[in-house]
Amino acid sequence: MTKKYAPATLRNREPIREVLSDELGQDGVLLEIAAGTGEHAVYLSRAFPDWQWQPTDPDADALASIAAWRAEDGPPNLLPPVRLDASASEWPVARADAILCVNMTHISPIAASEGLFAGAGRLLSSGAPLLIYGPFIEADVQTSASNMQFDESLKARDPSWGLRELAWLDGLAAAEGFHRTARHAMPANNLTVVYRKT
């Protein structure tokens, strides 16, 4: 199994931990959507030992990387990775008390974001948080030059990718019975936005 590395993880893992410490309850099952390399899963599951941490990803290489990180450095509450496509109408998980999604919405088709909220609507109970990290476009905030360039480069790689408007995400949330309760500024012009089921 081959571990993969995402350089941004070292920059954002502690700010994400700080947000989670504010937003999570005492314990439960956290479902991580699009866990990627698995570096966040190892770091954050260790920081929240009373939470069972379920990493998922649709990509076989990512799942192998998560498994490798877990085998080498994973705490007892980090569960084996599960293949999950956010856009699927059914998810192979039975329970979640919180959902975390880092850096997915802009590097996936819109169906993945739509599926993220639909899946969260099926799994989360009233008041439970869905936390989404990434770069977004906000109507009342000037988009940084670096994020504009990033958006253009993403669309050049795949026309279905690109930075999403936060208002659009808010609309997806409302359609599934969620409302945005927090907006946390993060490093490198990113945000963590928190939605809770009403």
From TrEMBL:
Q: Which SUPFAM superfamilies match?
A: S-adenosyl-L-methionine-dependent methyltransferases
Protein name, entry field: DUF938 domain-containing protein
Question: Which InterPro entries does the entry link to?
Answer: DUF938, SAM-dependent_MTases_sf
Q: Where are the transmembrane segments?
A: none
